[in-house]
Hints:
elongated
Amino acid sequence: xxxxVESGGGLVQPGGSLRLSCxxxxxxxxxxxxxxxxxxxxxxxxxxxxxxxxGSTVYASSMKGRFTISxxxxxxxxxxxxxxxxxxxxxxxxxxxxxxxKDWRRNVHWGQGTQVTVSS
Length: 120
């Protein structure tokens, strides 16, 4: 089995910062792309950023320059540094990971999400 667990969400004022973390554990052979998505109430889930195991990154245009994704391959962790947060960033943030397990099966696994609320 594979577990994906996010942490670091919370309540922050506009203009503030938060750092989300996500750890992947279990019967893992390779962790390929890792990513962060978010879903606000009444809206579709959307990509925030993703990062390959080589470190190449992709950002949604509205987050570029404010959010930074990074990863630690040795720890199977991915991070999302969020700066200059806006009310519109309020959402449930999900981590996902494209994983090849030790049985050679490949799937994308999702965490349960961590809530980020931007409010004054």
